[in-house]
Amino acid sequence: MLDFPRWKVVSIWAFLAVLVALAIPSVVPGLNARLPVKIPTINLGLDLAGGSYLLLEADTNDVAATRVEAMREQVQTEMRRQNPRIEIGDISSRGGQLSFLLRDPSQVDAARERLLAITGGGAGMTGQREWDIQVVDTSRFVLTPTQAGLAQAVDRAMQDATEVVRRRIDELGTREPTIIRQGSNRIVVQVPGLGNPQALKDLLGKTAKLEFKLVDQNADPAQLAKGQAPAGSQVLPYPGSQFGFIAVKRSAIITGDMLSDARQEFEPQTNAPQVSITFDAQGGRRFARVTQENVNKPFAIILDNSVISAPNINEPILGGRAAINGGFTTESANALAIALRSGKLPVALKVVEESTVGPDLGKDSIRAGIIASAVAVALVVAFMLVTYGRFGAYANLAVVINVFVILGVLALIGGTLTLPGIAGFVLTIGTAVDANVLINERIREEFHRGRSVVQSIELGYKEASRTIFEANVTHAISGIIMFLLGSGPVKGFAVVLLIGIATSVFTAVTFTRMLVAGWVRRTKPKTINI
Amino acid sequence: MKLLKLVPDNTNIDFVRLRGIAFGLTLLLSVIAVGLTVYKGLNFGVDFEGGLMIEERFAAQPPIDQVRTVIEQQNVGDANIQPIGDGTTLSIRLPVQSGGDEGATNAAVKKVEAALAAKFPGATFLRYSTVSGKVSGELVRNGAIAIVLAILGIGLFAIFRFEWQFGVSTIVAIVHDLLMTLGFFALTQFEFDLNIVAAVLTIIGYSINDKIVIDDRIRENMRRYRKMEMREIINLSVNETLPRTVMTSVTILLALGALLFLGGHVLRGFTAAMILGIFVGTYSSIYVSSSLLISLGLRAEPEGGAARPGRGGIENAERVGPRN
Lengths: 530, 324
Hints:
The complex is a heterodimer. Chain A is α+β, with helices and mostly antiparallel strands. Chain A has three domains: 6-49 and 358-523, Up-down Bundle (Multidrug efflux transporter AcrB transmembrane fold); 61-149, Hypothetical Protein Ta0175, Chain: A, domain 2 (Alpha-Beta Complex), CATH 3.90.1070; 209-341, 2-Layer Sandwich (Gyrase A, domain 2), CATH 3.30.1360. Chain A is built from 15 helices and 19 strands. In chain A, strands 7-8-2-18 form a four-stranded antiparallel sheet. In chain B, the strands form two sheets. In chain B, strands 3-4-2-5 form a four-stranded antiparallel sheet. By secondary structure, chain B is α+β, with helices and mostly antiparallel strands. Chain B has two domains: 16-43 and 136-300, Up-down Bundle (Multidrug efflux transporter AcrB transmembrane fold), CATH 1.20.1640; 51-131, Alpha-Beta Plaits, CATH 3.30.70. Strand 18 (349-357) of chain A pairs antiparallel with strand 5 (124-131) of chain B.
């Protein structure tokens, strides 16, 4: 047990030296910038660095509804395109289902064939049907989304949404945001060092679904007031207009995905903030054609199903550019430009949990954490020294090295230090010496029973090691559970605790045994003061 | 150099003799703790109850009544206001905003901040958090699952490594620790939030640690002194490990004390829970888990194994008599 060959001594020191060295860039500010190689440093959690944590949740019903709407449009276009044309009517998308009637029941087979093709040929890539197609009363089709299909749609929507969220946050120019999908319909966003997350929330709260649609001028205002629109049109809210709502054609001239750019600008005459948009090639052609055909008619600019403005088409717009006006401030125009540039969110996101820590509190917490840790180390070190003398000194060296080793490992795995993490750190300082207490008490006990110095030390380490192992395994069990089930700060605590358990076994047992062995070999003590 | 010894050598305290009284006391305290938790309830933090919490720092100590009036004029529901530390920082709790969507919550935070900043120049927010009712329900569930899983996992480990009696007594002791912690939070009405769940899990980890050390010694002494009465073995084991129990508790308390006084207000509840846990866990190691082993009928000699030779050489090679 006390036999440490030279290679072992060298490798233990080397191993610890490497881990301690890894901690140094995290401890000495500004050092990393001057180093030729970048050493990973510890990230500070939001509660220390200041910043915002947002948990966004998508409404899955929203995805389902959008999907049925999309299917409705697709079915209408496809059936019109058939030769001979398949006439359909009484189309409805209520109750999460799409149902419609064939004017000519003899076309059931042709219609079904078409439907199978557009719903993924009966079996998608996963082999699961995304839609159930039923025929009731000989000529009515009912399309019901399957659970699997819906789950897939939600998954796709969330993937896209995560991407869009990332692009929008990147546009804000914040440093090192973390954007992670969580569960089936949530996204975690962590943005450090943000003084005021309002702009961020405003930005993420917008789906930014932009549409240009022609205004339906034939609509009867009395009908509109009841929320009824002529066939092929829909009623949309139009804040700030005469009635507060307006009827527009269902089919869109331009949608947000036909944009190639969006910028905040100022209107040359009035100097009011506006958003100028540039269409891509397809969008430019379409816009040019529609504006040529509809001179002197109004069209509506619709954002997130609410009309911003309904300007008149004075002349064909051929340049592939347009501007959106409508009572913007510079900030809101800029936010809209960013949202449009980054694409629309496939599903609306809601903030279900938020935690924002101002930079002042973070600084206070770091300072308090450092002071508390330093005092804790000092107290524990002093206590161990007066209780165990030389053996306490060895344990203390182990504790101090362990502090840096934990930091080094944390930096190495790219871990995040949170405020509870600091608590875990201080606690680890307290528990790390527990191993040495166990060992030293055991050595003392064996020595008092009349064993020789070497025998006592050997037995002390051997017997205590078993206990230490068992005690640490159980401790680790609760740490692992905390890590798996905990969120945010609690996870940070668990990480530090787990690293501490692993490293403290090494420093408190192996490392101190080597120190004690070295001392025994050098001085051949006849007695021990412990 | 004369070294400090908190516990004198060769203590021989008859812990087991007080077992009956201790069981009665433990039972009584547990019943009180459960009663307090049920009737008084826990003061759930914003993460468990939903709603919003704003921590605002003022230039000077503000009169709380005025702050309350300012907030109540904003029509955001009943405010629960508590001073933190020197009183220049206030914690303001508001219920989940009606409408339940982020718009309402955002607006409430904005309104309160603007109103406070207007009325009290120099007031800035330190942090705020908002949690919807749905998420808070999940957090409560996850917290409860974590605690139950930790207890079961550790109990299973103890059964696997030791006899079943150790597993059962350990689980009972941990449940006791948990009840005491809950009772403490119900009594003091300290805020019970996610961090406290982490503290509870750590208390469980620490308490288990303590029990394993004693259990390990009991097992060792059972092998070493095959003819000894169980209550004597337990007394001996608890006495033998007493210096370690005290030493470790003191070092951890030193570290936690530093954290309590110097670690800042955010961690105070967490640290308080941990300190309580150290005391409760140490008590339950001696008076719940170890004493329970006797009631559970743990025998020094395994069935049919009376004549079985010892495993290791050293333990049996030289028998050192019990130190009484």
